[in-house]
Amino acid sequence: MRVSTTDKTSHPVLIFWILAGWVGYCLLPWYMVEDGLWSFEWLFDGYPFDEDYAPAAFLIGQGEKIWLSPLLIPLALPLLVLGRVKSDPVYSRILILSGTLGFGWLIAQGFSIGIRGFNYDWLGSLFGDIRLRQFGMGYGAMICATAFLFLLTQGIAARGAINGDVFVVSAIGGVITIVTAFVFFPIAKMLFAAFVTEDGAYSISVFFAKFFDDRLWGLGCLWGARCGAAWNSLFLAIMVGFITTALGLAFALVVTRSGFRYKRALRALTVLPIITPPFVIGLALILLFGLSGTVTQFVAELFDLTPTRWLYGMPGVLIAQTLAFTPIAFLVLIGVVEGVSPSMEEAAQTLRANRWQTFKTVSLPLMRPGLANAFLLGFIESMADFGNPLVLGGNFDVLSTEIFFAIVGAQYDQGRAAVLAIVLLFFTLSAFYAQRMWLGKKSYTTVTGKGDSGVHPLMPKGLAIPVMVVALGWALFTAAVYAMIIYGSVVELWGVNNSLTFKHYVTAFSVRFEEEGIRWTGAAWDSFWTTITIAAIAAPLTAAVGLVTAYLLTRQSFAGKNAFEFGTMLSFAIPGTVIGVSYILAFNVPPIEITGTGVILVISFIFRNMPVGVRAGIASMSQLDRSLDESSLTLGANSWQTFRRVILPLLRPAILAALVYSFVRAMTAISAVIFLVSAKYDMATSYIIGRVENNDYGLAIAYSTTLIFVMLAVVGAMQLIVGRTQIGRRMSQSRTNV
Amino acid sequence: MTIQSKAAPVRFDGVSKVFGKDVRAVDNIDLHVDAGKLVTLLGPSGCGKTTTLRMIAGLEMATSGKILIGDRDVTKLPATDRDVSMVFQSYALFPHMTVLENVMYGLTFSGFAKPEARSRALAGLDLVGLKGFDSRLPSELSGGQQQRVAVARALVLEPQVLLFDEPLSNLDAKLRRQVREDIRAIQKDLGLTVVYVTHDQEEALAVSDEIVVMRNAAIAQMGTPRQLYDAPNDRFVADFIGEANLLPCEILSVDGDMAIIEIEGYRHTLPSRGLPTGPATIAVRPSRLVIDSGDGVPATVAKATYVGVRMEYTLTGKFGQVFAVHDNVDTPLEPGTEVRMGFAAKGPVLLPE
Ligand SMILES: Nc1ncnc2c1ncn2[C@@H]1O[C@H](COP(=O)(O)OP(=O)(O)OP(=O)(O)O)[C@@H](O)[C@H]1O
Ligand SMILES: [Mg+2]
User: N or C: more exposed end of chain A, with fewer CB within 10 A?
Assistant: First the structure.
């Protein structure tokens, strides 16, 4: 089989990428098109000669942007190998040369020449003061770059890397490139931004000045003043981590180790965090405990007290985050608690340990990885949460909101935002690291073949009662909060005029039927459709990147695989806020200039949600026996055909889950989004936050309620399609293996 | 420090176990296990062996009936309070504890001071041949070693009854033989009462004092390995324990304990087992078929296989097909050879129709 493929002298894949390179160079607009490529206005607006829309070939034909002309060499080189066989050393050498030259030159020129000419002074002095300038790369440049990348990977494959498998080498190259471009590059850029002085020079002292700011590390709260945002965030995140873990464990124990009858209802709780934008909880708390909140008013009347603003600040944020993130901890822990083999606990019982001793010495220690994961998730989510502190924070400053105000506020201080983001990143990465250390090398799974059946023993009595009380109490509270959300959306003006009305829904979602068709007159439609569109574009891309990465991690071995895995999972520990800031810093100047477009939103979603796709993919792929692929390979299929014909079809449920999950997450996300939206591309969540800031709670809550129901419908449809494959379980697996 | 035995007998009186509404996993069984004996529960998958065992351990509560260990009625007692330990099929070693901690686990809950528990645990490890492995984690042991840790963990408690649920099913064939001999040796040395579940009949024959063959949640037959092998009660037991050729025959006459049977003109005398004259079934082990004895049932060699220590033949005839083995490997019979097939003087038994 192999022999015949290496003997062929026609290379369809190679021809495809050579063509793509030429198309990118000669046909498509080289630079970013202002109104977007897909409007096609540029076609009738001076293309191909207008400088703004011209392809590279036309630009240099007119004597402009001559630094693009060297690209012709690497574009032409691969034509030489078309008649050669793959095993010919010249074949691989030429492709590697062409790919490296082309890709390298593209990057070099992109970073050297910006909007205002040379980006580096030494270049200017070297070439004299010629006026060179260019904008961000457009589709032409992007396709050209992609073509060079895959010419390079084909060259590497032809040299025999990974058995000469073009698909695998290309996939690895592709994933490394995009992760570098959209995770490492922006983070690095952000690190540098922290050292930039006002006049653009680099200086360590700037960093230290901003780093040792009292607003960051002040300990004033110990004696009644305000504490720094870093301490606040850290303290809050630790509290939230602990409380959500404890509550999540209580829920998981009730579901798996008690005779409680309504377990299914409790399990339904796990869907909540998936479909609720986190700050919605904050809104509901205001309706309950705010100055004119139901409970506040009731208590005030009952005891004749003056209502206070106790909610605004640390207590409110803590309650809101605990409500929002407890179901996530539950999701993680239920898998772990169920995963403890019943025979472990039964063994302990036959060894004379009573229920309480069994729980303490066997069950609980075996749940340790889950507890650590749940804590880590709570910690990171709390650190990254932006909506609740914004809505409820009051004078309680946390890093995520401080970052936001540093960027969008009057102060507009990128350096400060970068420093704050670095502190935030430092905290989450430390937690990530600490979790690994705590778990240590100990093994928490047994290595055995055939398992025993058996049932989990019930909790010891002394534990069962408090656990039930806490879990059910909290579940009722959660239910009350959600009821509040729905109720709040149909009240005229909360606390002032409590009459029922659909006015907010009408304002947000009214439509008019006219002769030309439907007119979406509601205030929310714009952001609603944008959100749906962006989420729908991002979802398949996220799933694709995630599954290909999972395939590489489970099915292929190559040098540097561990680093590769670490890199792809890193964005999990990066809070959305940090992603947001780093994207702004990295992508509002050439060569990749995409701030203010929908593209940046799509990209941020892909890399925010990719770890989930990867984990889901790994979880289901490791269940497929490797012999399946091997048999397919021995039957003469190559690895791409195997991936497409054998693995993908078997992964259909996982793919669907990844699709729905990334779709829904894209709709509820706020922390990164808030930095990246623009007037043209506003997202539902940031629109709602905007309404809240204008004290327009009715509309905000009506819109949130709608979102929740839309997503509930999506998740429900998914449940129907996939059938018994529970989305909750699938997710818990993917969440568990952080 | 040595490990002693407080071996006690186990009694089941009319015990049933019903899961849910109508899954009858164990149906009204009576069972008596003498102190210091190794009794095997044997039977096809799903016949209720594990459930029976778990009821002895107290991990499953009997739906009806009475369970006694020693003189004590333990029917309602949970596992913790029974003096029984169990070796699980998956071993169920605690992965977060070292080997020593695993073995000490039960001792610390039995009221032993730490140093005492420790020395007893070390003695237990010594007994199963795992001296020096005490600080390893279970994940750092081979399958056979894990299995022995599980045995040591159960042994050191000196339980009244020790239970094994298919303890060898995760081991390879060679190790299986050795470990089962080790288990049997320890059991005999210490005089333990052991109830042992398996569905491997060879294993059951090799280790047991007594075998309980189960079928469909009930006991099909109970007896020593010899009794079961030589005098199975019915077709099921005959077929389940060792291979048996079942042939239709005619009981011509019964004289006291002995009967004369006939198959296609070939006559044979054997214990009547209380059967009347008329049609019956005879069960003959492959090694008890005598080929080419001059006298016998006409048959043809359909297949001959050389397996090293002996020859295996498939014979066909009017009676159907039988499987026979023969020690003579030097002058094997060729397929197609016409032979006469007789029965050895001892071995063949009559089964009720
Ligand atoms: N917890 C349970 N709930 C419902 N049915 C059960 C339960 N445990 C066992 N059963 C049923 O009881 C019957 C006996 O099960 P048991 O585990 O005792 O079989 P076994 O003889 O040990 O089989 P194997 O050799 O496969 O281990 C089976 O039909 C099984 O399906
Ligand atoms: Mg069993």
Answer: N
